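Thread title: Can someone regenerate the structure for this chain?

I was given the following input by a collaborator and told the matching structure tokens would be attached. They weren't. Posting the sequence so someone can regenerate them.
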Amino acid sequence: MTAELVRGQNHPLPHTRLEIRVSAGHPVVAGATLADEGGRVAGVEWIAHPGSPSLPGLEVSQQAAADHRLAVDLDAVPAAVHRLSVLLALPVGIGGPTRFGALAAPFVAVTGLDGTEIASYTITGLDRESAVVALELYRRQGAWKVRAMGQGYEGGLAAMLGDQGLQRPADLAASILEAVSRGLARSVSAPPPRVPEAERVRHSAPTLPVPQPSQSSPQTPPTSQATPSSPASPSSGGGPISYAHPRRAAAPEPPRQAPPVPVAGDAGGWSMDERLYNQVWGMFEDLARTTAAYRSACDFAESRLDKELEGLLSDPRSRIGGAGDAARQAARARHDELTARAQEVLDRDLDQLAAESEVVEPALPAAYARWDNPVWHAYRVPMEAPMAVRLGDLHLPERTELRIPMLVRLPLERGLWVDAGSGHSEAAEVLDEAELRRLALDTAVAHAARLLAVYPPGEFTVHVIDPAGSGTAALAPLVEAGVLAGPPAAGAAGVSAVLDQLTERVDLVQMALRAGAPDALPPGLDTAEQLLIVHDFPHGFDDRAVTRLRYLADEGPSVGVHLLMVADREDASAYGPVLDPLWRSLLRLTPVADDHLADPWVGHAWTYEPPRFPAGSRVLPQVLAQVAESRRQWGR
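Best answer:
Regenerated them for you:
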């Protein structure tokens, strides 16, 4: 039975290998400190945080997230450690809440490796605090206990670290938040709160019935996405309880129900577009969580095998001879059984997701569809903007052919950056520099064309900066269709003119909004959403132009001015850390497949596939021609 703790209450821990689960409803930073008997943290080497997530016996998440799972092995922590504190903090500089009082109360649970809750704590009473010590695991007379803390700090992460006895806590807090910012820069933004779970047919990732060993694994256990774990039998040491009478024949098992037939638009929403959007995000989350359950099960099996083999090697009687060989074979058989069962559950869930994808993909509207979707043959310029736009596909290595549409909400909340550098992508390394840069600009043109196609006539304006004119061929479809605000700007003077124009627009709209008079804008000001494509950065940019570009990246999205950078970060290395905030503010995309994006739930590394036009297709010029014609008809 779960012990529901209140502040200051403690509870004994029956196991030393545990999982601490955090649910906050909004991205938070999770970390932990190790302290001695007096509660003193020896130094930064005793802190686990996103920038340094692993310590002996402890592992935390590498990015801010709404849900966390911390793996704890109390037998593996240093002997001098008597206290482990779980810390939560709100990330700064991302435009979210700055105090816990603005959020629902965070929930923290300590569970065993089979997912059974041992103790839980809802952290209530927080207001202006932006950091909190949630739980404390402490050693008393050789036994470990958990205590509900709920100690909040208005001074944030720095104040909390200082209270832990650390030197220079402000510098450490800054380094942790810098690591969090890097993680958020590669994370796909989660959608707004979704409809209640009951309104959507979900794919569950059930808990695998893993027996509870005498020495458990520090890795994350297999978990259930939609249903709680079955209670463990005290006599069996794990697995579900059998309620059958021992002297009566067992009742026949009910026939297994077939999985529900997938239907396009089975999620909640006011319109079909909204239901499809929520369904795609549900598929994204389902794939992330069922893969996490599979990987956790495999990690658990590997860790248990290592532990059992280590125990056999430590016993001289089992090192040699037939008994030792039999024990090792039995351990490997248990490992193989666990991984096979995990693979079976994964295959079942992935098959259902694949079936859903086959139904959903053809039903997607143009804004969500691939360029090879027949919906583009019947394309007409819409009269209202959609909820979101597709920027490519995402997949995981467990099944690469199962692609999830990468849908990003409109209007864009952050700019885009198509990385023209090789980075760490294997696909990019086999291409020469010129080919990679060409593909990068082609990808940017595809993104711009889709944005133009999904907005009503005259409600989306595209500007282009091409200082050296090296992108003429790739930009030709946009130029020839006449859908740009003007010819691509070339040279330093052209760069300065476009940046000045958009900076002035940002200033005017901001002043009007602050004055509460959005209708008092100068006549002739283009109120449409603005997209600035910047090619071959930083060529043609002086220090003043770079400053204005950073200003547009920071202030533009809130007033409808967005960046689409096509650049290799190495080309701008001369600016050093000055441009780091610029790159972090943009959503990095690539012109070739690259596993650089993370989901907002468990932080998997997802492979991003950029959009591609079918070979020989004329869908791009046909769509742009319709956009241009609709503008002429509407006088825009």
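The chain has eleven helices and 21 strands.
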